[in-house]
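Hey all, quick one. A colleague (J.T.) asked me to put the zinc ion job into the tracker so the inputs and the structure tokens live in one place instead of scattered across chat threads. No bug as far as I know, just bookkeeping. Sequence used:
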Amino acid sequence: MNTRSTVEDLFRRRTQPVGDGHLDWTGYRNKKGTATLHWNGGTHGALRVAYRIRTGQDPIGYAHATCEHPGCVAPEHAADSAVTPRRGHHTGPINRQPSSSDDQVKTLLREGLNDRQIGRSLRTSPKRVARLRAELELPSFHNRPLTFDDRWDANTEPVDGGHIRWTGRLREGTSPAVHHERRYVSPRRIVFERLHGRAAVGRVLPGCGYGPCVRAEHLEDQPMRDQLAKQYAAIFGEVAA
Ligand SMILES: [Zn+2]
Ligand SMILES: [Zn+2]
């Protein structure tokens, strides 16, 4: 036979009926366990091909099986995630926002929100949040609210030169912000006040030359900058106006 086989032909050769209309995949599965087939120089998801066999078109979202048979690739059971929510993804209303990314969840975890709060604010399952919490090796905080120090530890890292970089949330792309006493505040103001025993006046910025620095000893507020300017003036004469 020298007729060129189609991707659908290839699909059929790699499947095996197992009763109740389910179809097992006998072909290749990638590392994630997704049934795929190579055809005409490209890789095709078996469920996408199955969906196309049933509907004559490509799914808009992901192709997934609506049945309970593990690994089923039956065209009759193939659905489009953009049309039919995936199994196990039924926790929210149908018109919910697109699922939040792991990074979004992890950001809130590091900020110390509990699983239920994160689930509510990102419209995701608290179970998924708990799984990501375990990945980060963060303890569960149902009983104890996070302290500023917990948040500081989770959102900072030392940098060469004795600086400390903020790895957490930024306001307006540059200003470190930490969830503290039910609102977002500058972690710089908090560590500044702790070190100097007084509230900062004006903006608190690193004076060390490392822009993202949040190390208390490297921070200056407006009176400190004014004082430094005066000292320079005394040493070098009049400062430039
Ligand atoms: Zn099935
Ligand atoms: Zn610094």
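Adding what we noticed when we looked at it: DSSP finds eight helices and 14 strands in the chain. The pocket of zinc ion (ligand 2) is lined by residues 163, 206, 208, 210, 213, 215, 218 (CB under 6 Å).
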